[in-house]
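Researcher: Here's a chain I'd like modeled. Treat it as a single chain, no partners, no ligands.
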Amino acid sequence: MRVRLIKDLALRFSMKTTELYVKTRIISKLVQWRKWGGSHTQHILEGLPSHLKGEKTTKKAIKDLERREWLLSAKKTKEKHYFLNPRKAKEILEFYEKYCKPKG
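Model: Modeled as a single isolated chain. C-alpha cells:
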C-alpha cells in the first residue's frame, strides 16, 4: 500500500514538472520570437522532445495557458496559430523571468 502511494505521488510530481517544462518551452519560444498580438505561429511544439508531442500533459499545459489567456489562438489555414496576449504581458514576462530566462 505504501509503495503504491509513493509511486502515485512520484507520477503526479513528474507530470507537474513535465507540464511546467512544456509551459516554459512555449512561453520562452514565443517571447523570444516576439509573437505578441497579431504576429502568430503554428510551430509552438517544435523543439519539444518527440515523446512530449501529442501527450496528455502537453495538451493540458496548452489548455492551461489558454485558460489563463496568456496564449491566444487564431484559426488559419485549417491549423491553430498561437500568439501571446499583449494584455497579459506583465504576467507572462514575470513567468518568463522566473522560469525561462537563462541564469547568469
